[in-house]
Specification:
heterodimer, B: 137 residues, 5 helices, 66% helix
């Protein structure tokens, strides 16, 4: 397991080397410190995205100013808002199913964070690189629907129940197009290992006037890229597919009855899932952390923020689809198109290679 | 071993929410009140329990999901092997054709499910009648 490719050293091993620890102790300590670094980096990004960037972006789209009172560009609102949100009173609704009501807000962010364990973030920041990396990241990401349905059921609220059930309907409709489209990338890369998928994308696709365009799978197979983008938006439940929370239809869906820190954790989990979706897209379609001049990690951050910006753009620009339309788009459109994409990719690769 | 690192991240992933809950427990007030803890139902007094029976709509779709999800698991090894098998000189009839037949069988299943209306959003009889009434008036 975890044979380092091209002399690539994983983050835990590097930390263990720095600390001069060997053996199992080095593995555990290195793993824990590495996990803390990755976890806190992602937490910091959601911290910037949630209380600040989301407001600023939406304000820019709707021609407003948004937060600008505290600190430069209103950035210190992040601190103020976290204190404000954490110090809200926690209201448990009547008849809530207690253990599961408390478990759901833990599962959601934990499942999203877990997905980042196999993502290569560039500059050597990657916790683990198992051979089944791509399958693993999809497995971790889909734990989210368990949290949504748990929270929705345990809240003892009709809107929450409907939101949770919608989340499941949406997830099972778009999970398959998502994975089948990712499979067409695996056909090119010939591996499920994240580092290999990234390494395969460094070769030059075409050279125009001395500028070489890398063989990112978004350029090699743009059709799969668009399909994956749409399926990914549905999987993470962003507009135009934010059916599970649909504020104009079912109040706030599964999170209607959640307040205080539980609400924060739901929001945190959702933002982490948006970033995880962006990280998966960056890794398998946009060359991972690759890019000119700047260090890898900076490129990785740019790519996942570009995806975040795209979700916010869609939020401002595209109306929500209805639940029955969503199911039909998923099962009649995306599924057929994704299989067509896989079969065509396989035939083209087979004929050319 | 990479699994230790993944396990460590799982620990951190659970520890972060727990730590936030602990901080919040120290900060937040507790002013219990009867009317606060009723569930939200558009400002009305809630009718009955929140656990209502409703048509979840996707019973058939969930069955389809199981079929196709297992299929994706079956295709993963093929997708990993495909290119190296071709480079090793395996003819297309052996590398590609079996997978095409496999997908083809499932597509036949999807077409069948489509035709019997399993992937449709079923409307209740009452909603359908109301819609006709609205259109007729």
């Amino acid at each position: 397991m975890a044979v380092p490719l091209q002399g690539e050293v994983m983050l835990p091993e590097r930390i263990a080397d720095l600390l001069g620890l060997g053996g199992i102790a080095g593995e555990v300590v290195g793993g824990l410190i590495g996990a803390l670094i990755v976890g806190n980096v992602m937490l910091a990004m959601t911290g910037v995205a949630g209380p600040w960037a989301k407001r600023k972006i939406t304000a820019a789209f709707t021609d407003r100013i948004a937060v600008d009172r505290i600190g430069p560009f209103g950035l210190l609102i992040i601190v103020a808002d976290s204190v404000r949100l954490l110090s809200k009173e926690l209201i448990i609704p009547e008849g809530a199913d207690r253990p599961s009501y408390d478990l759901a807000p833990i599962i959601l962010p934990a499942s999203a964070l877990l997905g980042f364990s196999v993502i290569p973030m560039g500059s050597g920041i990657q916790l683990a690189d198992p051979e089944a990396g791509l399958a693993l990241v999809f497995a971790f990401a889909s734990i989210a629907s368990v949290a949504l349905v748990t929270g929705g059921y345990a809240s003892n609220n009709k809107y929450s129940l409907m939101g949770g059930l919608r989340a499941v309907a949406q997830n099972i409709a778009y999970e398959i197009p998502l994975i089948v489209t990712a499979m067409s990338v695996v056909v090119f890369a010939g591996s499920l290992q994240m580092s290999t998928i990234v390494a395969e994308q460094t070769s030059t696709l075409i050279s125009i006037a001395g500028v070489s365009i890398p063989a990112w799978y978004a350029f090699v197979n743009p059709f799969a890229f668009v399909l994956f983008l749409v399926a990914n938006m549905a999987e993470i439940g962003r507009n135009p597919f934010d059916i599970p929370e649909a504020p104009t239809e079912i109040v706030a869906g599964y999170q209607t009855e959640y307040s205080s820190v539980y609400f924060v954790l739901f929001y945190l989990g959702e933002f982490l899932h948006v970033f995880l979706g962006g990280a998966i897209m960056a890794t398998i379609f946009l060359g991972g952390p690759a890019g000119p001049v700047l260090p890898g990690f900076v490129w990785f951050v740019i790519k996942i923020w570009a995806f975040f910006l795209f979700t916010q753009w869609c939020r401002s620009a595209i109306p929500r689809v209805r639940i029955d339309q969503l199911i039909e788009i998923g099962w009649k459109g995306m599924l057929v198109l994704s299989f067509a994409n896989l079969v065509l990719t396989a035939i083209i690769v087979g004929v050319i290679a | 071993m990479s699994w230790i690192a993944i396990g460590a991240l799982a620990l951190v992933g659970i520890a972060i929410p727990l730590a936030m809950m602990a901080v919040s427990a120290l900060l937040r007030p507790a002013v219990p009140e009867q009317s606060k803890s009723t569930t939200y139902e558009s400002g009305e007094i809630p009718t009955g329990s929140g656990h209502v029976q409703l048509n979840i709509q996707y019973y058939m779709v969930a069955l389809l999901f199981v079929v196709f999800d297992i299929e994706t698991v079956m295709i993963f090894p093929w997708a990993v092997m495909y290119r190296s098998a071709l480079e090793a000189g395996t003819p297309l009839s052996q590398a590609l054709l079996p997978m095409l037949i496999f997908v083809g069988i499932l597509v036949v299943g999807l077409v069948w499910a489509w035709r019997i209306g399993a992937v449709e959003w079923t409307t209740s009889l009452r909603a359908a009648t109301q819609k006709t009434e609205r259109q007729n008036t």
